[in-house]
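Note to self: the last two entries modelled the partners one at a time, which told us nothing about the interface. This time every component goes in together.
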Amino acid sequence: MPKDNGIGASPKRREDVRFLTGAGNYTDDINVHGQAHVHFLRADVAHATINSIDTSAAEAMPGVVKIFTGADFAEVGGIPCGWGVTDRHGNPQQEPRHPIIADGTIRHVGEIVAAVVADTPEQARDAAEAIELDLGDKPAVVDMAAALGEGSTKVHEDLTSNLCYDWVFGNDDDAAVQAAFDSAAHVTTLELVNNRLVANPMEPRVAIGEYSRGTDEYTLHTTSQNPHVIRLLMCAFVLGLPEHKVRVVAPDVGGGFGSKIFHYAEEAFCTHAAKACGRAVKWTSTRSEAFISDAHGRDHVTKIELALDADNNFTALRTNTLANMGAYLSTFSTSVPSYLHGTLMAGNYKTPVIQVNVKTVFTNTVPVDAYRGAGRPEATFQLERVIDKAARELGADPIALRRQNFISEFPYETPVALTYDTGDYVATMDKLEAVADVAGFAARRAASEAKGRLRGFGVNCYIEACGIAPSNIVGMLGARAGLYDAATVRVNATGTISVFVGAHSHGQGHETSFPQVVADMIGIDESMVDIVHGDTGRVPFGMGTYGSRSIAVCGSAMVRATEKIIAKAKKIAAHLMEASDADIELKDGQFTVAGTDKSVAWGDVTLTAYVPHNYPLEELEPGLEETAFYDPANFTYPSGAYACEVEVDPDTGKVSIERFSAADDFGNIINPMIVDGQVHGGLGQGIGQALLENAAYDADGQLLSASFMDYAMPRADDVPFYQVDHSCQTPCTHNPLGVKGCGEAGAIGSPPAVVNAVIDALQSGGKDVTHIDMPLSPARVWAAMNG
Amino acid sequence: MAKVSMTVNGKAASGEAEGRMLLSSFLREELGLTGTHVGCDTSQCGACVVHVDGKAVKACTMLAMEAEGSEVSTIEGQANADGSLNVIQQAFQDHHGLQCGFCTPGMVMSAAALLKDNPKPSEAEIRHYLEGNLCRCTGYHNIVKAIMAASGQDVSSIAAE
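The predicted structure of the combined assembly is written out below.
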C-alpha cells in the first residue's frame, strides 16, 4: 500500500493551489512604490571597441531619471568566478575582468553597453534608442578551434590568448595512456559536438533593487536559485557592501535549470542604481534579452577514444574536449567542463585507465555555465555514444557490452577521483529491460517497417554525482565557496513548525516534500510544518538549489536540526514525566516513558518549552529552535539505465520518439510523485537537446536562434508519455535520509539513448551512418541518410 | 493614455492604457491580475493565455484597447464560487501537472478552451492543441495526463503517479 503521509508518500503539492489560481508571487508580480524601470542597451555586435557613447539626447527624453555607462561602474568590482581551476602545468586559469557594464570593449552580442533608468519601461526603452554609440568593429572570435589558433584575435587583449585553461585529469601520464591504447585489441574513436543550449526557464529573469536611506539597507528581489550566494558575491566582490545591510529575496521563481544560479550584472546594477537614483529600480527581462544575457549551457567539441581487450573489456578511455566559456567567466563556468565533467568519465564502468583533457576557450559569445546536469550530460553523452559505437564495430549487443563492464562492487574508487558509495547497475538494467519491453521490440520494429518507417532502439546508462561536496575537498580543487547547506527548525509554542531552509524551491516542490520529512520524524501531521525559503533576511546561510542537492544536502541539515529538536524535546518530556531522558520514546507525536503508560503529547512539550513554569531552567534553555549546517562526506551517486525507441521517416528524416523508458536508482525517495515529475522534466529537456534545440551562432557572433521562433523548444507533441521506474533503490550510505537526488538525471541520461536509437534505426535500414551531431533535426538526419 | 473598460472575470474593470499597451500588460499592471504571465515577446510561450469573449487568446497578441467592451476571463476567475479548484485546476494538482507554476495559468486556460470545444480529446489531440503553450518543467507528461483526467477519461494506465 502506498503511504499517505510522511516519507515515501505522495501528498498533493501545497504550492499548487496558489499557482493554479494566479496567486503566485513571482518577482515581476512585485511592484515597489515609486519604482523606476531600467532598460539595458545591449550590444548588437559581438566584438567592438566603444569609441564613444553620447547620452545627451537620451537624457533629455521624457521620464528619464539617469543613464549609466561603463564609466559609472569603473570603481565597482567585476562579477567573480566561483571556481579557480589549476591547469596541467600548475598555473591558474586566465580570469578576465567581467564588468557590470562594458568598459570600453564589447565582447558579445547582448552585453550591456548602457542602462537607462526612467519612470516607465516604455520611456526607458525609447530613451535607449536615442543613445549614440561610436563603435570600432573588431573581428568576432566564434569558433573554438580557430580561437586557439596562432594569430587569432583575442577576446581579452590583456590575456595571453583565448585559452582559459588546459586541464588534465585522471591519468596524466601521456605515455602510459598511449601504451594502454597501443596494447588494445580494438579502439573505437568518436568525434562529436555537445550542442550549445539555452536553459529557457519559462519565467524570464527579473531584478528589483531598493535602498532605504533611513537604515542604509538594500533589498534585492531577484529570480535566483540561491539568494545567499547572490548576496555574498554581490556584496563581497562587486559592490563592496556589508552583507548585513543587504537582503536578497527570491520569491516564487519560475524555473531555473541552472541559469538562475549565477550572479548577473543586472542584479548588481539594480541594487547599485537604487541608491544612485534614490528610488527602487526594476528590470524585467524580455525573452529576447534572456537569449543573449542568460548564461548558455553545454557547447563542447570532443574526441573520445575507447580501448577494449580481445574479450571486450574496457581497458582505457581518453577524451579531449574544447569547452566554450563565452566572453566572460560566469559564476561556476570553469567548474563545469572540469570537475563536474572529468570526474564522471568512468560512468558505470570499471575502465582502469582514464585520461581527460579539457581546454576551455574564450569566444565572443554569451557566457556558458551550468545547465541541468552541468558537465555530467557532456560526460555521459560521449561515453555512452562511444560505447554504442564500439558495440556496433565489434558486433556486440549494446546492453551485453555494458553489462560486461559494469562496476559491481561498492564502494568503488574510480580512476577519476570519485568513490561511488552504492549502486546496482545490473538491477537498473534488468528493470529497464522489463519497463522498456525489450523483448517486444522486434515486433514493434516490424510494425513500423510495414508502414515504411525505420525503427530503432537505443540504450544508455548514466551515473550522476549530486550534492557536490565536501567543502574541504572541493576547496582543494578550486571551489571558492563552501558546499554545505543549512536549516533552522523553529517550533512554535502550539507545536506548529517553521523550517527555514537554505535550499530554494522553483518547481521542485520543497514546500511539500520537506515537511514530509520533519512531520515523519516527529509523528505529527504535515500540515503542522511549513518551510520558509528564498529570503536571506529569514533563512540561515545556505547555498541554494542546484546540482540535485536540495534533499541530499539541505534535507540532511533539516534532519540534523530536527534531531536536535527531538533530543531537547525529550529532555523536556522527561522532566514533565519525572523520568530519565534516556527512557523517553517519541512516536506519532507522543512522548512515552519506556515500559510505562506515562505519556505527554508533542503540543504539551512545545508549550512547556515556551511557557517554562514546570521546567528545568537550571539545566535547559527555554524555547525550541535549532539550526544545523550539514557538509556532506561525499557526493551522492544516482544511477540508471534509459531506453529510447524512435521511428524515422526515411523520406523526410523526421524522428519521432515512440517510447522512452527510464529505470533510476535515487536511493530512498521522499515523494515519489515529485520524483517522477523531476524525471519527466529532465527527459523533456534531454529529448529537446537531442532532437530540437541548438543555440547557433554565425561567424560574426550573432545568435541566430535568439527567440522562441528560432530556438526549437520541445512542445507537447514532440514527446511521448514516459515510462519511469524508480523501484531500484540502493540508499546513499553517508547521509541520514539515504537519498541521492533526482533533479538532473533525466537530462543527463536521455540524449545518448535518443541518438543511439536513431543510429540503430538508420542502420536497420541499411544506412552506413555511425554518428549525427545533435540536434537530430530532419535536415541533419536526411542528410546523413543520403550523404 | 486613454481609459479602457472591459468585463474581467465577471466584474466591470477599467484602467488607463497607452495605445501600444498589450492586454497582458493591462491585466497585470493596470488591474493587478498578475496570474497572467509573460514568458516571451514573440507570442510563442502561451503563459499569457486568457479568454476574450469565450475564445482562448494570447493576451500579448492583443492591444488592451482591442479588448474594450469585451468579456475577459483570466486564471484568477477560474476557481469555483466557493474558492475550491475547478475540475481542470484540481486535475492539474492531482496529477502533478505543474512544477514551477509559471506556464500553468496559460496551460489551464488553454485546457479549458480545448475541453469546451472537444470534451473528450485524445492524447494526440491534447498534444497538438498545446502547440502554443510551452512548459520547461514537466516534459508535458503530467499536463497531458491532467487534461485527460479533467475530461473524465481513465488515466490509470498511464505510467507514473
